[in-house]
Amino acid sequence: QVQLVESGGGLVQPGGSLRLSCTASGFTLETYSIAWFRQAPGKEREGVSCISRRDGRTYYSDSVKGRFTISRDNAQNTVYLQMNNLKPEDTSIYYCAAQVFRQCSLWPEGNYWGQGTQVTVSS
């Protein structure tokens, strides 16, 4: 069964950190580009970060650049999103998606999607 599962979300104070995980089962994650998206209530889904399968190049939205880091652990079949200096506006449901593209995209499209993990930044 092909599946993506996100984990690591939770409640954190402003300035805090979280590490999200996106673990694949039923397929090999390194054969796909992987992107992280987020969606807050009443807002459109937005691209946060992605890592390309072609060359491992990473991309970030302007809103998270310098604070978030995406990485891949092929042995664990997992992609991580390290989130530092979190802000209340980072509060969202975070989703990962596997993209067949050789070059990843922050446009909200993917061949496989996870169910999402809630991140809440509040004091």
Describe the structure.
With 123 residues, the protein is an all-beta fold. It is 0% helix and 48% strand. It has no helices and eleven strands. The protein has strands spanning 3-7, 10-12, 18-25, 33-39, 46-51, 58-60, 68-73, 78-83, 92-99, 112-113, 117-121. The strands form two sheets. Strands 2, 4, 5, 6, 9, 10 and 11 form a seven-stranded mixed beta sheet that branches. Strand 7 and strand 8 (78-83) form a beta hairpin. The radius of gyration is 13 Å and the shape is globular.
**If you average the pLDDT, what whole number results?**
96
Low-pLDDT runs: none
Order of helices and strands: EEEEEEEEEEE
Oligomer: single chain
Annotation, overall tally of beta strands: 11
Percent of residues in beta strands?
over 45%
Shape: globular
Number of helices: 0
Specify Rg, calculated over alpha carbons. 13 Å
Binned, the helix content reads: under 10%
Question: Biggest sheet, open or closed, and with what strands and sense?
Answer: 7 strands, mixed
Cα end-to-end separation: 39 Å
Structural class from helices and strands?
mainly beta
